[in-house]
Amino acid sequence: MPKITAIRCIRTRANGTWTIVKVLTDQPGLYGIGSASDHYHTPSVIAMVEQSLTPLLIGRDASQIEDTWQSTLTSGYWRNDSILNTALAAIDVALWDIKGKEAGLPVYQLLGGACRSAVPCYAHAVGNTLDELVEDIRRYHEEGWPVIRCQLGPYGGGGFVDIAKARRPANAWPQERIFDDEAYLENIPRMFAYLREKLGFEVKLTHDVHEHLHPHNAVTLAKLLEPYRLFFLEDALPPEQIAYFRLMRQQCTTPQAMGELFINPHEWLPLIQERLIDYVRCRVSKVGGITAAQKIAHLCEWYGVHTAWQEGGDNDPVNLTAAMHVDLKSWNFGIQEENHFRPEELEVFPNCPKLERGYLYPNDLPGLGIDVDEAKAAALLDPEKAHRFFSMAEDRRADGTVVRP
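RESULT FIELD:
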């Protein structure tokens, strides 16, 4: 059995927010890759991999994936935080990549084989006006996308009010824009009424609240959107307020998708066991990798919940590929978030899965089926941009209170 001999972090993308972990073994040419990308805490995750996990794992049997996952999770006593989970996920995915290469099989075959020929994804349609949004949705629909997410401008769009007209305190803090729950409750149902009028019900639509509303208003929104038959409403509540899903379920049938910010089993367990959500949307790298994701998928199956891994936005091709393998083997898979990469980014990752007309297609190469070109990864990195500090946008209400995403 191969032994782990070294673990290296490869930082790439122009802004340096992608981190690919390479696990080397004592068998010539046998290695695996995984994603340790974190848009906001890149140096912290790299330090976790290099300073905490690498000394622990050197010399271990690369084939013992479950034991490595369990022992690494508890190696620092405290567990289930976003930094440790991301570092652990990178190692876990790399070990599955190694196992697949050893067996000469794609990872999804090792997990039980495919349940579908390709992975359906949902597109992201955006418009600053309703007519712009309709046009963007039609474009995706004509391309063949099975499901389309629709947003009125940025996250929270429809809820931003003119700062000059807002009722603010005399000593108001400087801020670029103001979010108002009532405006959102007025404009988003109006948006869907307009979309259904123009597009009918053939087009499957989703919407991302991005946790912008107070919990009671999230319940109200779900009720107001019921007539428009969404494919799902995404992240209506923040993780701290998931108990409100019980009230939401009692009052309407709008399908709920939740989990983008989840890192701890105590967050998703009650929602699945009580059938309070319809789609779980964890990011594979934030729950601990393929090992953890397939366990979540199995749990969901028995409760009638689908998976919809959160793989868009700042994610890299390696994590997207890891999610795809779990999608292929999960009977209760629902939909995966789309992601698009620039040509120069795709050149860094040979054999990246193809995304065409709303479907993600695997290849039959062993392991993950994707690789990393270290020379091109280094060339893609812009040292000046990589020194920038990244943080979430601070949307605020009229009195200055931060909106929790």
